[in-house]
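User: Run a structure prediction on this.
Assistant: Running it now.
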Amino acid sequence: AGRFQQFIYVTLPLIRNTTFLLTITSIITSLKNFTIIQVLTAGGPGNSTTVLPLNIVDTAFASARMGYASAQAMVMFILVMGVTIVQWVGKNQRNLLGEGIGMKQNKKKVGKIVMTAVLLILGAANIFPFIFMLSASFKPLNEIFVYPVKLIPEHFITSNYKEVFSAQYSF
């Protein structure tokens, strides 16, 4: 086998899982670089170092526009999830990378069941903030800060999403 075939059929299948993980974590980390920018520049000078997470926090807490900030966060979530799904589908296309030639992995059913159970438990524990954010993105401001918390808005509004998609961002 030549060097190119060796790279395609041996090297790429071996580094594919690591590359997948690093790509996803790099994209997510680049969207989470809020702390260092907030501490060093607070988005300035002007708005030259403002990133989407910093804009979401400023919108939510400096401008007190929780619904709009929730809509921005939902759009960011959808973007990150879209990139993750694209990467996941690309990772699972085994024929393109030549996997299967002597590299069959036998996964046991018990391992899959345990992993599924763990993921379901973690998902259940982390779903409430997501549901609250989604709910807040469809609420007017006067319904967001009520006690007791109501997850279903009394008045659904879509103006927060209209504003997110019509806004002109400088970053």
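Residues 94-104 have pLDDT under 50 and may be disordered.
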